[in-house]
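Deliverable D5.2: sample structural annotation.
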Amino acid sequence: MRTFVTGATGWIGSAIVDELMSAGHQVIGLARSDEAEQTLTSKGAGVLRGDLDDLDSLRRGAAQADAVVHMANKHDWGNPAESDRSERASVQALAETLVGTDRPFLVAAPISGLVQGRSATETDVSPAVGPHSNRGGSENLALDYVPQGVRTMITRFAPSVHGPGDWGFVNFLVAAARKQGVSGYIGDGSTTWSAVHRDDAARLIRLGLEKAPAGTRLHAITEEAVTTKSIAEAIGRHLGLPVASIAPEDAAAHFGFVAGFFATTMTATSDLTRQALAWTPTGPTLIEDIETGAYTTA
């Protein structure tokens, strides 16, 4: 397949590009800078210059592709309304281009906010509906195009997609530990996160494009529930720092912006995903990655 990938030079997107190309697929990556273009061309991927605010570039990419993987997101924590607006507009532009083609359209989504008090499953419907909801309601918006001849698939990602070079949440936890001289967890540390290794997530995306039917929700989840205390302890062991509980009222000062996420349980299962696609994760666990130095340069 000739696949158009937004976010093609991002943390997960770059692994998806590698996975698709190693399986014999062609890739066109959206690039908003000369550096991103050079990264893609060095891999032998095609390049389309543009960004999420250039909806015409998104339409051109989708029109010339056999499949679309939408990974890019502004992640503007200071202005989440702008991120939500951009996400909805991007999904709409891509989906409308694919109407009537039955081409695969895979959209990234988080597992956070789906359910309360238990792990989310693939059958759970996102409560985010409409332009003013989380991520602009893009998950449900994308699925609305299934009856219009778009093979939409949603892939929900664990809060930790880990591996050497990860710049996400765990990276910020490691940086906070170095700054504070202590690896902390909030309260009793019983809050839990799901996790998946980046390579396993990339392979899941490829399998989804190749095999998943329209309307499928996939969960990129290897470990259902890793306690935040065990994450802090692994960071402490690796850095040789003490480990301590941080009072909830002191969490923001200790961890920075990531405190709100570290205090929130975000878990899901992936049983249905594994059965449907014969997906068998093989990468190391989150704790193994921390202990073997994946975040040494955090």
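Annotation notes: The chain has a mean pLDDT of 96. The CA atoms of residues 185 and 245 lie 5 Å apart.
The annotation will be released with the project's public dataset once the embargo ends.
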